[in-house]
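Researcher: Here's a chain I'd like modeled. Treat it as a single chain, no partners, no ligands.
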Amino acid sequence: MRVRSQKLETVTKNVNMSISDNLNKIKSSLPPHVTLVAVSKTKPVEDLMEAYNAGQRIFGENKIQEMTEKWEAMPKDIEWHMIGHVQTNKVKYMAPYVSLIHGVDSLRLLKEINKHAKKNDRVINCLLQMHIAEEETKFGMDEQELSDLLLSEEFAQMQNIKVTGLMGMATFTDNEAQIKKEFTHLKTIFDRLQQKQSTVNCQPSILSMGMSGDYLIAIDCGSTMVRIGSSIFGSRNY
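Model: Modeled as a single isolated chain. Structure tokens:
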């Protein structure tokens, strides 16, 4: 199986099926312990509502402004996940409602989230993003940076965030063995984190890895949350 080809094939194969059909097909392939985040970036509200009416309640966006507009327009029992790279000056716009922020890659960003969560009298759940891919364009921390962050006095004092797990993206490649190696590496880091004593603001239970082209590999490697867009909604709109 070639991962890149699989991704293109999935989109092409599902283009004549409805969003609800695609969604139900994906859900039927997931084990009970794996949470599906429907990645709805660039898609109109009517497409999201079709998924919503089919039972989907967790949506992922990569732009805060777009996510906020959809949050304002859609039912309030939806969990909104921010899955893209987060700019610190945009945190305030999603702080009132965001359920989970996937891509926290620095203490600076975590401090900003904590600040705006406090202003909104909330505790915001966050995933720390690890850099596991060979591609230099991917964001994320290495193991030493992760350890330094979690052991810092600044982190210990944060009362309005909770680290609920880790997130990572594998290299975009046809090499399935490489993808598996990178996901397995992240699972090892996650297991070590879980073995450490949990604190009020660090209770890791989520390992978010796997997208439309590699989510089955990710699940085999221990993922508990997958982010799937094109296989549900079709190709992105730009």
